[in-house]
Amino acid sequence: MKNTTENTHFCKLCGLACCSKQKLLAHLLVHSNKQNSLCDECGKIFTKRSSLVQHYRIHTNERPYACEVCSKAFASRSELNVHIRAHTKEKPYVCEVCSKRFSQIANLKTHFLIHTKEKPFVCEECGKIFFNRSSLVRHSRIHTKEKPYVCEVCSKGFSDPRNLMTHFRVHTKEKPYACGECGKIFTKRSSLVRHYRIHKNERPYACEVCSKAFVSRSELNVHIRAHTREKPYVCEVCSKQFSERANLRRHLRIHTKEKPYVCEVCSKAFSHNDSLKTHFRSHTKEKPYVCEVCSKAFSDPRNLKMHFRIHTKEKRYACEVCSKAFTLKITLKRHLLIHTKEKPYVCEVCGKAFSHNDSLKTHFRSHTKEKPYVCEVCSKQFIERATLRRHLRIHTKEKPYVCEVCGKAFSRNYSLKTHFRSHTKEKPYVCEVCSKAFSSPENLKTHFRIHTKEKPYACEVCSKAFTQKINLKRHLLIHTIEKPYVCEVCSKAFTQKINLKRHLLIHTK
Asked: pTM, whole model, 2 decimals?
């Protein structure tokens, strides 16, 4: 005989044994004074027995209604009916005001509140009002810090089941929403909706202060903080404040040293996905951002934005100490270290300190002898990218920096500034020992070796030392017997240009 104990369901209130779960649920109504249905698992009360039956399947994980198209299962027939409309694209519920259609009546009811301006659900903590109860429930978790929805893969918690569903696509790499115009795919429908407005050039959210319009309300909210100076997101480690939550998240990786975005080509890791995308273009040589004025192309939109200020002459970042203006905020920050004399970046090898981390990285290559930037024309190698760029102008003969006084052109902006002082007679670099002034810091540095007796440039052949590299180069011609400077009149050759100039005076007499 079959054991029926396993199939017997007992009432926890009176001990009555029922042969099925449904009969037990029906019996429970006897104990309810209000003729309501009470869930004996979680205590939730329902006005209809059918609602309790559906709810109870949450605890039993029972889903008897399956979709014939995709086999997805549901706890109730009504949920299945709503789901089927995802396949049929049916939207039977129409708004009487704007004719917008919906697949669920609940969504229509919520939408209708937009027209009536009614927000009946109020948060008791902060007074914020909402169109529907579910939004209020989700919002209340901000105050309670409750995150009941946990990712099975990485254990990250969420206050909203939809956010968990979206997050899970990080692990599955699923991007189910595709743009019909350009084919770009997204993990969230809302991201696709915002993106599509780029194609339609639609910007429905306008700032009341400056009238600037945005694709999404979230972008408008962030922009408004530029006017209010509000920075509601605070770093718990260093107390730095941010106007956007995304910026706080990125900032936190400075403390955690987390670099989750890895290049598939060279395995270099980055803390931001944008940085990885920009870096990847160094492999593909892609430069999709083009200047409308001079057609120069860039791999990063920020570099294009900064470059464009060359044409507009815009220098929005001014130093409060000396009023010098800069096109970039980062350049202003570096400049300020001149006034503070701060040098926080110290070389582990020789102890030399620097104002900027980039300067330390460049300096460190003098110890490692690393020269990662190679000229494609002559294969000469350089420690810095900027030095390579300047060097390339030797091959291209490009001299973009022109003196406004005499028209002389230079390949470097720095050389133009130094030259311009020959017109202004300005000599801002003064020797601390003898007070002699110079128009460039290099000349001061070379001069200072007279006092220190330093001769850092030594000949490898005879060990003779010099204060300047140019003097060493001239000296080396003695050993090579090379005479590159030839007189066009009599073909006599010289090791130094100055000797050729002196010689030419013989022919001019």
From this structure: 0.39
